[in-house]
Amino acid sequence: MMVDIDLIRIVDVDYIKDYTMDLKFSNGETRRIDFLPLLKGNKREELKDMNKFIQFGLTHWTLEWYNGIDFAPDFLYKQGEKVA
Known about the structure:
Elements: E1 10-17, E2 20-25, E3 30-34, H1 50-53, E4 56-58, E5 63-65, H2 73-79, E6 81-82
Antiparallel strand pairs: 1-2, 2-3, 3-6, 4-5
């Protein structure tokens, strides 16, 4: 089944541990994401500091960190592993 994820957004987030979160998407699926491999380049490197990584918030469509870093919801959807 093909899922149209062009307009998908994040509707809830559960911090698990380290750099791992469960993200619930607007299509009802929850995906587990390890953010550590995604923290490369410019301001993203700052988020390797755990005290800074946990300073995130849920906007109306995705996660955003204190320093303005965010990721497109469809990118995170593709990166995550489906949680049963």
